[in-house]
Structure formats: C-alpha cells, structure tokens
Amino acid sequence: MNLHAKVEFLDAVLNREPVAGLTHDFYRYPARFSPQFVQAVIKAFTQPGDVVLDPFMGGGTTLVEARVMGRRAIGVDISQLATFIARVKTTPLLDRDFSTIQKWGESNVDRLNLHSPVIRADKWIETGYQRNFSSKNTWPIRKMLELALAYVEELPDERQRSFIRCALLKSAQWAVDSRERVPKAKEFREQFLGFLGEMIQGAQEFSTIVRRSDRLYKMDSAVRTLCLNRSAVGLENDFSLLSIPSPKLILTSPPYPGVHILYHRWNVLGRKETPAPFWVANSLDGQGETFYTFGNRQRKNLTTYYEQALAALTSLARLANRNTYLVQMLGFSDPSWQLPRYLVTMEQAGFTEVQFKELATSPDGRIWRSVPNRRWYATYHQENSSATSQEVVLFHRLI
C-alpha cells in the first residue's frame, strides 16, 4: 500500500461513526462492523467478481458492501434471525415493490388500534416466544405487532412481507430493547411509519447501486448473494457452494472469547430477556446464548469455545486457497491469554498470521481499536470494560 492507501485503511478500521447508509440500519444487530471498515478490506484484498465470504455474517454488513462493490457475497450464520435480516438487507427490490410496501404502511398504520380484535399468535405463545413481552408496559406493543403481522399476510409477495416484518422488527427493538420507558401506542405507530420510509429510501439506493454494479462488472452469475442458515462447521461440504470458486476474502467477526453478547434476545426495560424478535421475523430460535457463542463464557479456560472455533476455522481452511485472505475483527474478555490461544487455534486449523507492520497501532504489530459504549461484558459477576472495549484486526492466510 502507498501512504495514502495506508491512511485510508487505518481511518476505516478506526472509524467510530454510527452504522448507517444503504440498508445497514435496518436492524441494530450486536457487534456490527463499520461499513467503512468492510469497504476498505474488500477494496484492499479483492477485485470485482471475486467471492467474499462471511461465515458469521450477523446482520449482513459484509454482504451489503460486497454486493454494491461488484463482488459475489456469501454469508453464513447459525441464527435464523441473522439470516432473515441479512436476506432482507441484500435483496434488491423493484419500484412496484416499494410502491406496494409504502401503500401498505400508509393504509394499515391506523389499523394498529388497541381496541381492534386480534387473533393471538397461539403457537408462538405456547413455545415461549412472547415471554416477558405481555406485561402492563409492553402488551400494547405486543398487540400492535400481532395486528400488523396479520395484515402483512395480505401482501402478495414474500419479499414485500419480509421487508415489512423487518420494519416491525426495527420498530419493536426501538420500543422495548434496553429502554427505561416503553413508548405509547401512538408513538410506536409514528416511529414505525418513519422507519418504514427510511428503510424504503435505503433499499432503493441499495437496489439502484447493485443493478448498476452488476452491469458494470458483468455480474451474470446466478449466485450473486447467498445467505445460508447453518453452522460454519462442515461448510466445505455444503451443496450450495460446490459450484462457487474459493473465496478471495473471508471477512468476519466470530464470537468473542469470554465476552457476553446478547445476539438473540431483547432486554425488555433493560432487565428481562425475550425471544420475541424471532416471532416477528417468523424464525425459530436456537438453544440459548451458548448456541450462538461457541459455548459458555464461564467455563474454565473456555475449552468449549476453542474446540468449536477450531472446528469452524478448519472448515474455512478447506474452503480457502493460497490466494485467500482471512480478515477477522475480534474482542476478548482477557486478551493476555485468550489472543495467544486463539492464534494457536488458527495455526491448528491451517492458517498463519500475516502482519502489516506499517499499519500497526500497537507494539505487538497489530491494529487495535477502541470501541466506546460497550453494551456487553466479560463475565457474569465482574465487568472488564477495559478489555472488552478493545478489538483487534487479524490477517491470516493458509500455511
């Protein structure tokens, strides 16, 4: 890299601006990448037409940026909620879709009336998806969601239904997740309509850029964006990937060792967890926090975490080739021992670290960045805000 490129790359890595633009703000998924960081990495390590893989795609930031930059984007996540969000964010829509969605919102927002009869979501209720979501404070939000989700089924196209479900998901997260006060029904309706308009605008921009990019780079492949709901373990054997070349770039942020991140729940009033987002997204939940984080963060030496990480990273090594770069952003509850062990795990999987000394922000030769206002913590009993407010960028290639 020349000096200008180095400065640009570091500025992108250290960027602290709120995640915004295109479809990035459709949902506030935990531990999201900065789009500027993703842009910089894709620009540095790939060319148009190359395959970019994110095996822990979360909210799909990597996929959104890869598509608008003319790359083929593949995302994988074990969470059905993450897969739903990423698919909505990366699906180009037509003008008629936007018109239908806008008309639906304008004609139905007033029907979200607390006095209207509603058919309860009995199957979701029986399986616990509305747990902690029917209190004195939250039941109005729950009822308006039930009404809206019934009206969504009136739409003719699944892409349109998913888009509005995502808008409801964003609105409900705004209303209840870590809030001290649940908004009134009128406030919710107004916010929903506002969010819907913002999402339409972002999706229109995304759709326009993607179509222009596809023409510019002659992206005639049938597989331009692929979102898989599965584990990264065994990914090399997935039938969907058999006809796709090895990724030129694997860009991802795997679960952080020893760090609690609530990927799959909302904290109602900041206290009680609810799996309601899965209900809104018409998706199934997993098996608790450890299902999404490579195991219990309180287990001694994080044995399960590193076993799961090794299995996943070994699969990535089998998908990669000699031209593949693996770029990861990671945080740790205690980097002093967790980072060295993670690097050993990478070697066991078949990767060797590549350091760009000219980009280093730390004496260890790596890029470290500070992340303000962390919302997760290192252990159940004691926060380690100093450690968990730091993230490192790791570069690897096959041994």
Number of separate strands: 10
Number of helices: 14
Q: What is the alpha-carbon Rg in Å?
A: 21 Å
Pick out the low-confidence regions: 376-384
What does this structure look like?
The chain is an alpha/beta fold. It has a domain at 3-80 and 223-265 and 288-398: Rossmann fold. It has 14 helices and 10 strands. The strands form 2 sheets. Strands 1, 2, 3, 4, 7, 8, 9 and 10 form an 8-stranded mixed sheet that branches. Strands 5-6 form a two-stranded antiparallel ribbon. A hairpin with a 3-residue loop joins strand 5 and strand 6 (272-274). The longest helix is centred in the middle third of the chain and has 32 residues, at 185-216. Mean pLDDT is 91; it is low at 376-384.
Question: How would you concisely characterize the structure shown here?
Answer:
With 399 residues, the chain is of the alpha/beta class. Helices cover 42% and strands 12% of the residues. The strands form two sheets. Strands 1, 2, 3, 4, 7, 8, 9 and 10 form an eight-stranded mixed beta sheet that branches. It has a two-stranded antiparallel sheet with strand order 5-6.
Q: What is the topological layout?
A:
Layout: H1 3-13, H2 35-45, E1 51-54, H3 61-68, E2 72-77, H4 80-89, H5 95-108, H6 122-126, H7 139-152, H8 158-176, H9 185-216, E3 225-229, E4 249-252, E5 266-268, E6 272-274, H10 276-280, H11 289-292, H12 303-319, E7 325-331, H13 335-349, E8 351-353, E9 367-370, H14 385-388, E10 390-398
Parallel strand pairs: 1-2, 1-4, 2-3, 4-7
Antiparallel strand pairs: 5-6, 7-10, 8-10, 9-10
Helix pairs in contact: 1-2, 2-3, 5-8, 5-9, 7-8, 8-9, 12-13
